[in-house]
Amino acid sequence: MTNQFFDTAHFPERRNSNSVKWDGLAARYGREDLLPLWVADMDFPSPPCVREALHRAVDFGVYGYFAPPASYQDAFLAWEWTHHQAAAERAWLRFTPGVVTGIYWSISALTAPGDGVAVLTPCYYPFLDAVRDTGRRLVCSNLLHTEAGYTIDFQDLEEKIRRERVTMLLLCSPHNPVGRVWTEGELTRLLDICARHGVLAVSDEIHQDLVFGGRSNWSCLRFPAHLDRVIVLTSGSKTFNIAGLQNSFAVIPNEALRKAFDAYVKTIRIKKGSALGYVAAEAGYREGGPWLAEVLTYLQENDRILRETLTKALPEIRIEPLEGTYMAWVDLSAYVDPERLVSLVQDRARLAVDFGFWFWPEELVPAGEAHIRINLAASRENVVLAAERLIQAVREQEGAGR
């Protein structure tokens, strides 16, 4: 298959570009000689349509106060309907600098100090930070890990919602780090539980466009019976690789919730973002579809190569099916004890990855936890190199004795 955008010339050198992923290794890992596969951004450039729109905006030469154009909101609403069959309305849209910021704002605006806020663990660790940083009580319900993959433990979640006086559920959909794309049935059951107990569901759908295998991402906006108790946080930042332009949406169908959200945001006086963020996002939503289709093909091939290379050499390794996101969730417990995981991956393999134990509160990390999360939005060369380094590290360790 011809790939217009992803030949080898389309992977610029990101070192010394102030990239968090590439230039932040010493701060995060204490060394700079690692292959960075951690921060969830892409190593390939944004779509040509985004870069062209930004060039036009920069070449205009005047960067004064900027009013977000209606065309920007129109582009997002059209994308949501065309790609996700989600019928949002303009009045529901609110600006946030990023989805994580939207989580912090939602918790601060719509819960009270001491309220229980539930998350499904393992979970993207800023969720955990957001609950604790805002003075709320973190309530964790572990996903069930079966031979078929991860699923929600609905009984455990409902019991904890009732017992811990939970008022908000933070949902990751698709789920980071395990890569699940929740089905219509799963989300219906989850939202029904929230409705029974008066819980507000805040759904992080930032990876909504990164879905594989013919699946559909079911936005929480597609459940009319639950719209009064749902907030959806999303962005083009993962889809079009524009996270540095800090432009995201909070979609809030319920008017009373919007007013409470607005009242909180008024106290911090952050009403809108950078002009260039709006320009980039609108261009992506209007014209970025063909580029995204090629991205998905490239990512799926990266996943196949990583999976086949690792499982051929290390047959007891377990890699979760990649339904959504571009993060591989790899279980190394058959080859390394948890206390030696960092040494194996970081020191022997010289890889900078997210370690599985980061995705739980420290006191709740399961016994035997030895996952790593690998960013597949990298050059094919670096994905192969990562697999080879990991295999070699395991073999060296086995030779030295575990």
Describe the structure.
- With 402 residues, the chain is of the alpha/beta class.
- It is 40% helix and 15% strand.
- Helix 11 packs parallel to helix 13.
- The longest helix is centred in the last third of the chain and has 25 residues.
How does the major sheet shape up?
7 strands, mixed
β-strand percent reads 15-25%
Oligomer state equals single chain
Number of helices: 13
Distance between the termini: 44 Å
Q: Residue share in helices?
A: 40-55%
List the secondary-structure elements in sequence, H or E.
HHEHHEHEHEEEHEHEEEHHHEEHEEEH
- Mass-distribution shape: globular
The counted number of beta strands is 15
Extract low-pLDDT stretches. none
- Overall structural class, as computed from helix and strand content, comes to alpha/beta
Radius of gyration based on Cα positions: 21 Å
Q: Identify the strand order in the major beta sheet.
A: 2-10-9-8-7-3-4
The whole-number mean of residue pLDDT values reads 96
What are the SSEs and their pairings?
Elements: H1 20-23, H2 25-29, E1 35-36, H3 48-60, H4 70-84, E2 93-96, H5 99-110, E3 116-121, H6 125-133, E4 137-142, E5 144-146, E6 149-151, H7 154-163, E7 166-172, H8 184-196, E8 200-204, E9 230-235, E10 248-251, H9 255-268, H10 275-287, H11 289-313, E11 318-319, E12 327-331, H12 341-348, E13 351-352, E14 354-355, E15 371-375, H13 380-400
Parallel strand pairs: 1-13, 3-4, 3-7, 7-8, 8-9
Antiparallel strand pairs: 2-10, 5-6, 9-10, 11-12, 12-15, 14-15
Helix pairs in contact: 3-10, 4-10, 5-6, 5-9, 11-13
